[in-house]
Amino acid sequence: MGDAVDQILAQWAHERPDLDCSPMGVVGRISQLQREVFLAQRATFARHGLDVPSFDVLAALRRAGPPYQLTPTALMRTALVTSGAITQRLDRLEEKGLITRERSEADGRAVVVTLTEAGRAALDATLPDHLETERRLLAGLSGDDLDALAGLLRRLLIALGRVPS
């Protein structure tokens, strides 16, 4: 049994047999999966009063460990967004009382973003539901398949230069 991408590839093979359209088989499926993941995450986070960008910021702060602080620049690097985008995210989270922004005690010119108790509670309540959503999305694959897929995706991201700085 094939999927929609198989149909697209068959159509291109018929219309343009002179071209190797096989990259569409990978990229097309990644694009379709990206949409499925986005919709599932959006629904999961909405149940907890969050959205994907808010979850990303709260999760980065939580992963940082006590005292759950990062600079806006570190958050910007983690989220791979512009300074304007991170500022908007931080504004929304601060309005909700999930983070605070204060001048650094070590360097009065720098700002640190701190996860509040309410922010930690929101993240900790959302995380199990988020993980269950991801498990559900991946349920069609065996453990060995998941390991192989994770390895291939890792190799691709590294080849594209997506490595921690």
TrEMBL record:
GO terms for molecular function: DNA binding; DNA-binding transcription factor activity. CDD domains: HTH_ARSR. This is DNA-binding transcriptional regulator, MarR family. InterPro entries: ArsR-like_HTH (IPR011991), HTH_MarR-typ (IPR000835), MarR/SlyA-like (IPR039422), WH-like_DNA-bd_sf (IPR036388), WH_DNA-bd_sf (IPR036390). It comes from the Bacteria. Residues 1-158 form the HTH marR-type domain. One of its GO terms (biological process) is response to stress. SUPFAM superfamilies: Winged helix' DNA-binding domain (SSF46785). Pfam families: MarR_2 (PF12802). Keywords: DNA-binding.
